[in-house]
Design goal:
By secondary structure, this protein is of the alpha/beta class. It has 11 helices and 7 strands. The chain has a 3-stranded parallel β-sheet. The protein has a two-stranded parallel ribbon with strand order 1-4.
């Protein structure tokens, strides 16, 4: 797990016993290699912590030649060590998001079941097309995830139907429902599976992971 969203700490991903000295910010600035900032979170999970300093990355890296490919080059030295690398992107389509899109094979697009969220998705799809044509010809949309969904609300159900009609087979069957445990887990320094393993949040993300990893899903993405 690699955090590109600017934030002050990574309490939800990094053990309390680990002092954060180096983050992905140091890698992007060229002060550390990727292997130097990786932290073992658990047996099957390593993390690269984020930093609040990332909020100024567009200005700090704006004059760097090849700035859109900094992350891709940094990941090349470690990517073969992992089955999958998940990059948590900021909501803004700035230099950080461009770096992520240039480095990955698939994009999972989370969409809240509210109308305003649809406008941001259309802009993201345009950006993905541009990145594909210039930096990453193998980039595909792996799926669209309906999240923070409250099926009790008529508007949420209507927007979810609109999302499914618009994106068709790209929409995951799994839906992440609104669940307070998803907000509480990071505040307690735990993943949702550690904090509330029987919650709807844990259930939904487990279902999503299974769906992404199935051969049928991989075949659908490639078609």
């Amino acid at each position: 797990h690699l955090g590109l969203s600017p934030r002050e700490d990574d309490a939800d991903t990094v053990p309390e016993s680990v002092a954060l000295q180096n983050t992905i910010y140091d890698v992007l600035k060229g002060n550390r290699t990727m292997s130097e900032v990786i932290i073992a979170r658990s047996k099957n999970l390593d993390v690269v912590p984020s930093s609040l300093l990332l909020s100024a990355s567009d200005l700090e890296l704006g004059g760097v030649v090849g700035r859109e490919l900094i992350l891709k080059r940094a990941l090349n030295s470690v990517k073969d060590n992992y089955d999958a690398i998940l990059i948590d992107c900021p909501p803004a389509l700035g230099l950080l998001s461009l770096n992520a899109l240039a480095a990955v094979e698939q994009v999972v697009i989370p969409v809240q079941s509210e109308y305003l969220a649809l406008h941001g998705v259309r802009q993201l799809l345009d950006t993905i097309d541009q990145v594909r044509s210039v930096y990453n010809q193998n980039l595909v949309v792996g799926g669209v995830l309906i999240c923070l969904h409250d099926n009790r609300k008529r508007l949420a159900r209507a927007v979810a139907d609109t999302i499914r009609n618009y994106f068709g087979e790209l929409v995951f069957e799994s839906v992440v429902r609104s669940n307070v445990s998803l907000a509480e887990a990071p505040a307690n320094g735990q993943t949702i599976f550690e904090y509330a393993p029987k919650s709807s949040g844990a259930e939904d993300y487990s279902a999503l992971a299974s769906e992404i990893m199935t051969e049928n899903r991989a075949a659908a993405v490639g078609s």
